[in-house]
Amino acid sequence: MAAINFPDNPSLNQEYSDKGFTYKWNGTVWISVGISTTRISNIREIDDIKSSFNGSTTQFPLKVGGTNVTPVTAQQLIIVIGGVIQDPNQDYSLSGANIVFSTPPANGLSFIGTILGTDLPLNTIADDSVTPAKISLGGPSWATDGTVGISSGINIVGVATVGGNAIIGGVATIAGTTQSTNKDTGSLVLQGGLGVEKNINAGGNIAAVGNLTAVDGSFSGNVTIGGTLTKQDVTNIDSVGVVTARAGIKVNAGGVDISAGGITAAGIASVSAGAAGTVTIGYGNTTLIVDGGARVTGILTVGTSSLTLDGTNNKVNIGSGVTVDATGYRVGGDTFLHATGAALPFLNVAGVTTSTGGFMIGITSATSTVITNGPIKTLNFVGAGNTFQVTGTTVDISIAGGGGGGSTGKTQFLASGIGPGSSIRTQ
Predict the structure, then answer these.
(1) Pick from 58, 89, 116: which residue ends a domain?
(2) Band (416; pLDDT cuts 50, 70, 90)
(3) Judging by beta carbons within 10 Å of its beta carbon (0-12, 13-18, 19+), is residue 332 exposed, middle or buried?
(4) Structural domain ending residue among the three candidates 81, 116, 151
């Protein structure tokens, strides 16, 4: 082995060069110039390997405190065998975490080894000391903006905590199958809010303890609601049960079509159609059946103005020709029945007309006319052989004289077709 002959009694920071290398005395050992020792912890004693010296083995592991170390260069090591300092790259070289001697150390020789670490520790890496260039390809890559790109997959066995924002440009797959029964269990647990720019596709159920707020909702299947559904505007409702509306039901267009079952109202049912609207009930032959009483507060028209019942003015109109009200009964503009009597411009009676209260009649005899002022209940014809003859609109009564006869209790006219201007005349 070629030994380095360092000066005896060197002064502090004294430099010495040998075989192309320069060393500096730090007061304790000679340090290869260029090796940073700004941290005292970087200078470590190599575990003793003299027990493995046998005169034939040349390669030995380098350990510090039982942990393998891998020096960067052979100049980082100060190796003393049998009290003689060994020359780096001549007396020994490095092979990973092993030291390889050019001459195998003999059994019984002593060993002293010191590793002069740089600012980059060989066992514990300091913060902010690893640059992207020192990381092998195929793993993460750093962009100029400080972001990390990973071309392959990430396998996280434990918990991954992201303190800032996480942006996933591709597909994120969560392979866990934990059945989640609350917000703290499951394959994916979000302690904060979740913002989704696009769609959420769920193969199973979506259970929400709180409220679901959405602008629109589209369901291809059934929707089951165990509680109360509150909605401002509903387009279509297909319910097999009871639909309860607390503030009324408003149908703007299309109408209400009930094909079966009917409508049952426990209270008052009101139907209105606005100032100029029309309410149509029924279809086909039977349009409206009222089982019980019916009340119309306005005017009731049956047919196309055939029968009108005006309860406000106490009037009944049949078409435009018949009117019945409190003043009388009118047909075609003529009043026939009054509240105090009747005025009939024409009366055609095919049978017997009977009046228990009498008639108001006028009798013409010769040149005299007798007009009664009150109802006549008895008409007597005195004498025998009286004759009666109807000429046109005149009834001629011929009284022969003698005897008499008459009727008491009521007056009967067995005549037909007495028109306007008719009179009963006696001779």
Answers:
(1) 116
(2) very low
(3) exposed
(4) 116
Q: Distance (Å, rounded) from C-alpha 326 to C-alpha 340?
A: 11
3-class SS letters over the chain = CCECCCCCCCCCCCEEEECCEEEEECCCCEEECCCCCCCHHHEEECCCCHHHCCCCCCEEECEECCEECCCCCHHHEEEEECCEEECECCCEEEECCEEEECCCCCCCCCEEEEEECCCCCCCCCCCCCCCHHHCCCCCEEECCCCCEEECCCCCCCCCCCCCCCCCCCCCCCCCCCCCCCCCCCCCCCCCCCCCCCCCCCCCCCCCCCCCCCCCCCCCCCCCCCCCCCCCCCCCCCCCCCCCCCCCCCCCCCCCCCCCCCCCCCCCCCCCCCCCCCCCCCCCCCCCCCCCCCCCCCCEEEECCCCEEEECCCCEEEECCCEEEECCEEEECCEEEEECCCECCCCCCCCCCEEECCCECCEEEECCEEEECCCCECCCCEEECCCEEEEECCEEEEECCECCEECCCCCEEECCCCCCCCCEEEEC
Look at residue 358 in the predicted model and tell me its pLDDT: 66
Beta-bridge partner residues of 426: 365, 397
Q: What does the pLDDT look like over 319-373, one tens digit per residue?
A: 777 888 877 777 766 666 655 555 555 666 666 677 766 666 666 666 666 665 6
Looking at the fold, whether 302 and 329 belong to one and the same domain comes out as yes
> Which amino acid, residue 231?
K
Q: With a threshold of 0.70, does the pTM exceed it?
A: no
Token duo for residue 184: 């703290």
Whether 239 is in a domain gets the answer no
Question: Does 421 lie in the same domain as 359?
Answer: yes
Q: In 194-231, which positions are buried (b, 16+ CB within 10 angstroms) versus exposed (e)? A: eeeeeeeeeeeeeeeeeeeeeeeeeeeeeeeeeeeeee
What number is the average pLDDT over the span 48-75?
92
In this structure, are residues 352 and 416 in contact, taking their beta carbons and an 8 Å threshold? Answer: no
pLDDT at 56 over 50: yes
Provide the 10 A C-beta neighbour count for residue 323: 19
